[in-house]
Specification:
The chain is mainly alpha-helical and 297 residues long. The chain folds into two domains: 128 residues, no CATH class; 169 residues, no CATH class. The protein has ten helices and no strands. Helix 2 crosses helix 5 and helix 6 packs antiparallel against helix 7.
């Protein structure tokens, strides 16, 4: 207990430890980003087979977040423990498989290093304690959702819905009171969850009514509802504004590079996730600065 207290009382050491934890978590998130959609697709196929009345469902090898061990997709070489050290192994292997020398995607160390850095920022901003722990869980869930949405244009319910309910549970109590975890008052969190979902639901249907097209998916509604459940309804306008600005900039750049006729959909989930994370750490400062600048405070 004294060792733990010593590690958490020294801010640089605490931030460093959280950074290392973030690196290791980032390695696991790479697995989640790749495997969870495949697991869901397999589950959906089994359910469809059952609904179609197939008595015999073809057995398949186990495939989840634990098994089988990670392998090179090109040659099947099983990744050893020394080859699975976050960031370091990528640099040591020079970005190539040790067996067949196929190039390893740079996304793996980017996710690991990015998770480590944002985790360290959460530790620096929130300090030791329960809010930091839950802030890290919120952050890691947003990273996983962003990666899956970029790859598959999917925000799985198995992450968004537990994230929403966890946000409400975390906020059981009065925010700001000593010893309480809450990021927001519970009534603000409940309203935030409802308003987050309904606001994008309304935008979706208005957009479809006007254009005849679908501008976003239902997963975006659930993600914004989860953000509202964690932070409260007061932070929803800031989250939507930040995500819209960044989305417009990146979307405009993508259209400029691919041409105006490009029909490639751009996932909105990563923009919502990034804006929600910024709102968690700096939302109050941003809103206070705006109110002071506008003369409203």
């Amino acid at each position: 207990m004294d060792v733990l207290q010593a590690l958490t009382s020294d801010q640089p050491i605490f931030i460093g430890l959280v950074f290392v934890l973030g690196l290791m978590t980032g390695s696991f998130l790479n697995v989640v980003i790749y495997r969870l959609p495949v697991m869901l697709e397999r589950s959906w196929r089994i359910q469809c087979a059952e609904l179609a009345g197939h008595d015999q469902i073809p057995a398949s090898d186990r495939f989840d977040l634990i098994a089988p061990p990670s392998r090179c997709p090109e040659c099947g070489h099983q990744i050893t423990a020394l080859e699975n050290i976050p960031v370091i192994s990528f640099l040591w292997l020079r970005g190539k498989c040790s067996a067949c020398r196929t190039r390893i995607s740079v996304r793996y160390p980017v996710v690991e290093l990015g998770t480590g850095l944002v985790s360290a920022l959460v530790a620096w901003r929130l300090g030791p304690g329960w809010p930091c722990l839950f802030g890290l869980l919120f952050t890691w869930a947003l990273i996983a959702l962003s990666g899956i949405d970029i790859d598959r244009k999917l925000l799985p319910d198995v992450i968004t819905l537990p994230l929403l309910w966890l946000g409400l549970i975390v906020n059981v109590g009065d925010a700001g009171r000593e010893g309480v975890i809450a990021f927001s008052a519970l009534d603000d969190a409940v309203v935030g969850a409802a308003a987050g979902y309904l606001s994008l639901w309304l935008v979706y249907h208005l957009f479809r009514l006007v254009t005849g097209k679908e501008g976003m998916g239902y997963g975006d509604f659930k993600l914004l509802a989860a953000i509202g459940a964690w932070l409260g309804w007061q932070y929803l306008p800031l989250t939507i504004l930040l995500s819209a600005i960044v989305g417009a900039i990146i979307g405009g750049a993508a259209l400029a590079m691919k041409g105006k006729e490009s029909q490639t959909p751009i996932p909105f989930g990563p923009f919502l996730a990034g804006a929600g994370w910024i709102s968690m750490l700096w939302g109050t400062d941003i809103m206070d600065a705006y109110l002071a600048f506008s003369g409203l405070r």
